[in-house]
Design a protein that fits this description.
Length: about 230
């Protein structure tokens, strides 16, 4: 079984990060195919290159023996189905349903956090984070929901655990949010900050961070806060 994962720039591509971290942390062997961002316009080289792999022209794409699977939820479910022994979802059916629920919420929600705090692993922008926190009620609401969600899940686990005890798809799903929190130094309670640190220290996440820091690929259209006044 040959698996390929088509991704974008590691410094910026939060959607690509999810399945890459999931596969790396779970020990699923795959070939990485990186398509560098240049523009998201329909005629860009990025879009043209991606349409060789899927009709939607977006990353990530899982290629399973030549068969493309796109969208991070579809990729996660495909991997869970192909590797049931890895317990990528929790074993308990209620916990499995809850994990799917929080991943779906992350997939379609937290829009203010996504908009105002784009992933940029190489950057450290605490001063921007303070302005965002002051001015953007939507970001404050998203962080409040995130604190409630993480707090409830972690309260049901032993101290020092991940969201469902051991590593699952849910932790891979929230890894890009952890990167945003670190970049903009968004305020969190100490126990949730400790969860962010645990995620950042995971083998798969650390490998992604290391690769992102090594890219040195500054893309102006991904840098809303470093090209002018905020």
């Amino acid at each position: 079984m040959a698996l390929q994962l088509v991704i974008g720039n590691k410094n910026y591509s939060s959607w690509s990060m999810r399945p890459w971290v999931l596969m790396k942390q779970a020990g699923i062997p795959f070939e990485e195919v990186q398509v560098r961002f240049d523009s998201f316009d329909a005629g860009s080289q990025f879009k043209q290159s991606l349409r060789q792999h899927s009709p939607v022209g977006k990353v990530p794409v899982l290629i399973d023996d030549g068969f493309p699977v796109w969208d991070t939820l579809a990729i996660a479910e495909t991997l869970a189905e192909r590797f049931p022994e890895l317990n990528l979802w929790p074993n308990d059916r209620h916990q499995r349903a809850r994990a799917r629920s929080v991943c779906a919420e992350m997939h379609s929600g937290f829009t203010s956090l996504r908009q105002h705090c784009p992933m940029n692993i190489e950057a450290h922008l605490p001063e921007v984070g303070r302005l965002i926190w002051r001015d953007q009620a939507g970001v404050r609401a998203d962080l409040a929901r995130l604190c409630g969600l993480w707090g409830d899940l972690l309260a049901a686990q032993p101290a020092g655990s991940l969201l469902f005890g051991d590593f699952t798809i849910a932790d891979a799903y929230f890894a890009p949010v952890c990167m945003r929190i670190r970049t903009y130094d968004l305020p969190l309670p100490a126990d949730l900050r400790a969860y962010v640190d645990r995620v950042a220290a995971l083998r798969g996440v650390k490998a992604w961070i290391d690769d992102a820091l090594a890219e040195h690929d500054f893309l102006d259209f991904e840098e809303p806060y470093r090209l002018g006044p905020t």
